[in-house]
Amino acid sequence: MNNKHCLSEQDLILHYYQEFPESSAESLHLAKCPACKERLNALIMEMAALPDLPEVIDPHTTSRMAARVSEQLKRPSKKWLPAIGTTAIASVALALAITLWSPQQELLQTSSITSEPLADNLDGEMSDIDFLEDLELLKELELLSQIEGV
Amino acid sequence: MPSTTAAIVDTPAGSRYPRQMVNTDEKALLERIRKGDESGFEEIVKEHTGKLVGLAWRLVGTREDAEELAQEAFLRLHRSLPGFRGDSLIGTWLYRTTTRLAIDFLRRERIKRKVFFFRQDNDSPDPVELARDGRQTPGEIFQTQEAMLSLRKSLQNLSSRQQVIFVLRHYEGLALKEIAEHLGLETGTVKAHLHRAVTQLRKDLVEFREGDHE
Fold first, then answer.
1. Residue A135 confidence class, pLDDT cut points 50, 70, 90
2. Which three-class secondary structure string do you get for A100-142?
3. Is B114 on the interface with A (CB under 8 A)?
4. DSSP run (H or E) holding A130
5. Interface check B9 vs A, CB under 8 A
6. Could you give the CA distance from residue A27 to residue B97 in angstroms, rounded to a whole number?
7. What is the ipTM of this complex?
């Protein structure tokens, strides 16, 4: 079978997860292509080596959760940071995030916090969408409250 | 999908979130709660805790964080009840909310690890996992725990979306279209994320096995 008609890695994975009906072009190709069958078998064997993640349920989870939720519902809602403090902290976090993750290489190189290898890793690993969403998250107070010393 | 042992609450591969209540029962329950009957909400919590905590644990890896996420999902449901139209089942709503909360949680953890050099201690196995199967030998238990730790570390190499999408497809058995609906994404995007996740995990598995043989 001509290799350029063989399934892409993505299609092979989708076939493994039964996303293609039996009558699909991908399934029909797989039935006739020894190379793709071999690749699929290799994928099946590797995926079979992944450990199970069963739902391990603590017998007290349900009663504990009911108590926790009930407790939370009884608490009055509270504004635990003044609005001005909130804005100030969010601004600091945003400035910090921009300093650390600015796509401009000069900013990364002159940053006292990041090193060049770390900046390269960040650039390599985060897509633009994730980057923008992470900036949004850094504004959240919940994250800041977990960071000690900031 | 690998089989699970009798000692563990088992979720068959490919199962959907169980439709424990029919729509009419849920509507009646919601009406009770809106009229001030809080025991109705407690019924909801007891009905759905097991599934939600199980889902959250699969997604985030620690029971404590899983219970926090499930709790938050319940609290958000409670806040949403006045305007809850019942377009989806309560279970579906909770499942979807928990999944999205997990993505946010994983993203925050990833930021903390990268920016503030926090190291998550994944080397201590979950005590509930230790009480899994009395029939396993100590050697088998150790191997299982090592494999679990390796999987968790590999999952951390993925983006939060890739991680969640992989777990939802591989371990929860959801179809990609369902995953897309839960996460508010296009199906094509979900497919791309799944492809990247599997590619990375396969690479890590090879390295893990080669490390075993050294």
1. low
2. HHCCCHHHHHHCCCCCHHHHHHHHHHCCHHHHHHHHHHHCCHH
3. yes
4. helix A128-138
5. yes
6. 35
7. 0.76
Tokens for B156? 């951390």
Q: What distance in Å separates residue B45's CA from the closest CA in chain A?
A: 6
Please count the CA atoms within 13 angstroms of the CA of B126 that sit on its side-chain side. 22
Identify the CA nearest to B94 among candidates B49, B60, B61: B49
DSSP string, B37-82: -HHHHHHHHHHHHHHHHHHHHHHHS-HHHHHHHHHHHHHHHHHHGG
The model's pTM is 0.71
Are A93 and A144 in contact by the 8 Å Cβ rule? The answer is yes
Q: Of A86-90, A107-111, B206-210, which has the strongest mean pLDDT?
A: B206-210
* Angle between helical axes of B176-183 and B160-170 (0-180°, round to 10): 140
**Distance (Å, whole) CA B119 – CA B192:** 29
Are the C-beta atoms of residues B204 and A52 closer than 8 Å to each other? no
CB pair distance less than 8 Å for A50 and B151: yes
Residue ranges of alpha helices (H) inside chain B are 23-34, 38-60, 63-80, 90-115, 127-130, 138-156, 160-170, 176-183, 187-212
Chain A nearest-CA residue for B118: A147
Partner residue opposite A122 with nearest CB, options B41, B114, B206? B114
Digit-coded pLDDT (tens) for B143-176: 777 888 888 889 988 999 999 999 999 999 999 9
